[in-house]
Design brief:
The chain is α/β, with parallel strands linked by helices. It has 13 helices and 13 strands. It has a seven-stranded mixed β-sheet, with helices on both faces. It has a four-stranded antiparallel β-sheet with strand order 9-10-13-12, with helices on one face. A two-stranded parallel ribbon has the order 1-11. Helix 4 runs parallel beside helix 10 and helix 5 (90-102) packs across helix 6 (119-126). The longest helix is centred in the C-terminal third of the chain and has 25 residues, at 266-290.
Amino acid sequence: MAEPVNNLIDLLLNDNIKALKPYESARRLFSGAGNKQQVWLNANESPFANDFTIDAERFNRYPDCQPPAVIDAYAAYAGIQPDQLLVSRGADEGIELLIRAFCTPGKDSVLICPPTYGMYAISAETCDVGIERAALNDDFSLNVDAIKAFKGKVNLVFICSPNNPTGTSVDKNQLLEVIEHFADSAIVVIDEAYIEFDKDNSWAAELTHYPNIAILRTLSKAFALAGLRCGFTLAQAPVIQALMKVIAPYPIPEPVAQIAAQALSSKGLVTLEQQVAVINQEKALLKSALAKFADVELVGDDKANFILFRTPQKSALMNHLVASGILIRDQSKQVNLDNCLRITVGNPEQNKQLLSEISRFFTLQTSTQEA
């Protein structure tokens, strides 16, 4: 029976989807390694797990499309108006909604600036939307001239700041030049998934002045709620109204809305600040320790909750850490990131374990070479 079914699927499947390669998420890459002994430092998740309460009284009812408690709380947190906000299933859904709302399949294109987050391209490919690329400069700053050359050729410009996986923040003057250049032709999408680690560089306060920007946010990183799948798109009201036309009727489950509202409460925001402070402190310690290894070169910047570094022994080190139960992320397939690995900042115990294994690896390598 399998062969006729496979033939039918092959017949019906969209050619664009046939050629599509799925995003290699941290969980897909190590789907068989999810036991309690693993140290997960590969997905830029928070090392903290916070407690919340759930009220099941409304579970028999469909949830609000845009839960007022979540919308109002996040709007207050971001310093914007509620009608400038949309909540979705992670920031990833925000990416897809923007593409679906503002790009015509088979006709329009988006612009990305690699090395950067992979879901911009995946979502565009899934929607049969073209992808143009303006690679970052060698120092990971925007290549503004290259970006500006795409005016009239793209409907969306995706810029991640702080950027994943380089940890670099985009210069505000450069970004302003891009926003103004595309003012009458494209929406500039600023991905601020890691903005809690670089608060002074948010563009949320500028929404009123620039109708062609949209900002992506999430509870997955600093808020320690990656498992919740709750993200936000910030933009002027007409953009939000357009996204509301293409979003699913019930995107936010009731338990998700309840937990998100608690995370955004006064108590939740105090917890956020405390945990961000711990992560930043641990990040500084990790950077200092890594810089002492002769075969390690720190790459990019530290404006997020991860560290990127280069080593000529990338594959051997990666294999050693995986064998030791420590999972980090190989970024060497990305533009200008040859031999680069990315480490998510863990809790103090996890970071000590990581450094101990890296030290053991280089010691073993030296002993082997001397022998």
